Amino acid sequence: MIQIQSFVFSPFAENTYVLYDETNEAVIIDPGCLMQSEKETLARFIEQKGLKVTMLLQTHAHLDHVFGSAYVKRKYGVKMYMHKNELPILASVESRCNLWGIRGYEPVEADVFLDEGDVVKFGHSILEILFVPGHAPGHLAFVNHDQRFIIGGDVLFKGSVGRTDFPLCDPAALQRSIKTKFMTLEDDYQVFAGHMDPTTIGRERRTNPFLN
């Protein structure tokens, strides 16, 4: 059974996730740890639980989701997985950090590209890949149907949806991704987003004012 541990990191209040199962194999999704203390918090949890990190997964490559990616790759000797359409976003992170005066970011390169229909495996667990562009051109989501949850990044939030005022965003594509991928899941699926608290598909279907 997959356990989900979340951490809120950086001034952007980004949700970083560690998923692990009874084998103690684990994946890290969207490491937003910018400060050294945040990196130590993440590492301490992994050490205390005796976890073996097997891969680094990115829903997308906006700066707040990759602040700690180079650290995770180096610390645990793992590869970084994302969609190839995120390469321009990833390449722009350092310049955006410099523009906004954000210190501490270490540039990182992707190693493996994922797409719709792929699966990633760790321990006894499987995550299915959904391609959900809009907020970012290569945005991915990670679904586990046995436990009925989705790690959704910045697509669908509790009472909101992802921003579309950044470069390479597409508002129409975001609505399509939500309608054709998220809203096809049943109401009890939990949504673990890139910001804010978890929610459910049913709650957002009934109450989210941003859904067409």
Automatic annotation (TrEMBL):
Top-level division of the source organism's lineage: Bacteria
Lineage: Bacteria, Pseudomonadati, Bacteroidota, Cytophagia, Cytophagales
Swiss-Prot/TrEMBL keywords: Hydrolase, Metal-binding, Zinc
Cofactor section: Zn(2+)
Domain Metallo-beta-lactamase: 13-195
Molecular function GO labels: hydrolase activity; metal ion binding
Pfam families: Lactamase_B
Record-given protein name: MBL fold metallo-hydrolase
InterPro entries in the cross-refs: MBL_Glyoxalase_II (IPR051453), Metallo-B-lactamas (IPR001279), RibonucZ/Hydroxyglut_hydro (IPR036866)
